[in-house]
Prior knowledge:
Elements: H1 6-14, E1 17-24, E2 27-34, E3 36-38, E4 43-47, H2 53-60, E5 63-69, E6 79-88, H3 92-105, E7 116-128, E8 136-140
Antiparallel strand pairs: 1-2, 1-5, 3-4, 4-7, 5-6, 6-7, 7-8
Amino acid sequence: MEKPDNRIIEFIRKHHVLTLATSLNGQPWCANCFYAYLDDENVLIFTSDDETRHISEAVANPKVAGSIVLETEVIGKIQGAQFEGILIRPENEAFGKYKLRYLKRFPYAVINNSPLWVLELTHIKFTDNRLGFGKKLFWKKEEVDSL
């Protein structure tokens, strides 16, 4: 798998909150979640209860979108990633691997019993004004499984 540009990877690594956007029956929704990023697999890992609206919608329609942003008022420092991906619930050995990686980033989550979710990134648009006003870098997964 071709990895995203290192500048995209470094940006995602530096942050820890994503906005997840879902849609069901033409109705959009979004939620904010703490995440851990595995750059070797290009996935975001987070926890969230099954009863939440965003998870209920993502189970019905696992194609999701979202963003990760740097909060700044300085135009020359604006950075942000918009992404598309497929949400899955890991099982068996994969669950254990992802749980360990999530707990490494958020050790206090050991007391959290919420289900674990993995967002397989399929497309990323990264805006980085440090590279020039409105400069964008793009990455797209070569093959996307159709759902």
